[in-house]
Amino acid sequence: MTDSAAAAPTPSEPPLVATLLHEGVFRIVMQRPKQMNALSSKMMAALSAELTRAADDPEIRVILLGAEGNVFCAGHDLKELTAARAESDRGRATYERIMRQCSDLMQQIVRHPKPVIAVVTGVATAAGCQLVASCDLALATDTATFCTPGVNIGLFCSTPMVALSRNVAPKQAMEMLLTGESIDASTAKEFGLINRIVPRDYLDQVVQKYAEVIASKSSHTLKVGKEAFYRQLEMPLSDAYNHAANVMVENMLARDAEEGISAFLQKRSPEWSDS
Questions:
Q1: Care to name a GO molecular-function term for this sequence (predicted)?
Q2: pLDDT per residue as tens digits for the range 3-35
């Protein structure tokens, strides 16, 4: 096991995020519950740093993204955004930097070579909902709620909309964006925003088992499949099939495909080389 933090803490300030690696499953936990785990510039930098480190670590096969407290993530740090209004350009440069940083973080998750699973134990709102939608999979407690409430404060959730609209049907996405109202975990699952709902008392056990099943697969195969999945989504049908066929050919030539097929035919467990 390893325990680390992405951001250097001050003597009186705990790390922005905590991490734990166990049997290929890498947990990243946001730990600013008093600030509702808001995506301040520093929090986004801390998350990005851990994701970068995880991409290069062969010991890490699956990533779990969670948070301390009753709020998974309240979105952007509105105090940070408001303070920028005092700047000579009324905050334009700061807003451009923060929105670009957030967009880069979400795309980093989508393009990450390892599966990223959101573990939602509370409220996920605005860019926090975007964070959930950007992950490959999402597990939530039965008390978790989700919303994109920017419209309530005169700030339409335009960037959360990008991730949201790639997870749920257009009318359901627009319902969340136009009303700004919260949906419960059951509705979020119905919409397609999350995969499973787990009682809080069993969450850690279920999440760990869920992640271990994925971690047992060939990391090379997971990387190939995840990249192909997101690329084909952006293509017309014919182009998507052409791309997927090319990926299948290259995948068939990989050592792990050869080993996996042989192991299946020989009725034994495969021994992955991750290549």
A1: hydro-lyase activity
A2: 444 455 555 678 999 999 999 999 999 999 999
Taking the C-alpha atoms of residue 129 and residue 193, their distance in angstroms, rounded to an integer, is 9
Check whether 1 has a pLDDT greater than 50.
no
What are the chain's domains? 2-215 (3.90.226.10), 219-265 (1.10.12.10)
Q: Over the chain, what HEC string results?
A: CEEECCCCCCCCCCCCEEEEEECCEEEEEECCHHHCCCECHHHHHHHHHHHHHHHCCCCCCEEEEEECCCEEECCECHHHHHHHHHCCCCCHHHHHHHHHHHHHHHHHHHHCCCCEEEEECCEEECHHHHHHHHCCEEEEECCCEEECHHHHHCCCCHHHHHHHCCCCCHHHHHHHHHHCCCEEHHHHHHHCCCCEEECHHHHHHHHHHHHHHHHCCCHHHHHHHHHHHHHHHCCCHHHHHHHHHHHHHHHHCCHHHHHHHHHHHCCCCCCCCCC
Whole-model pTM: value is 0.92
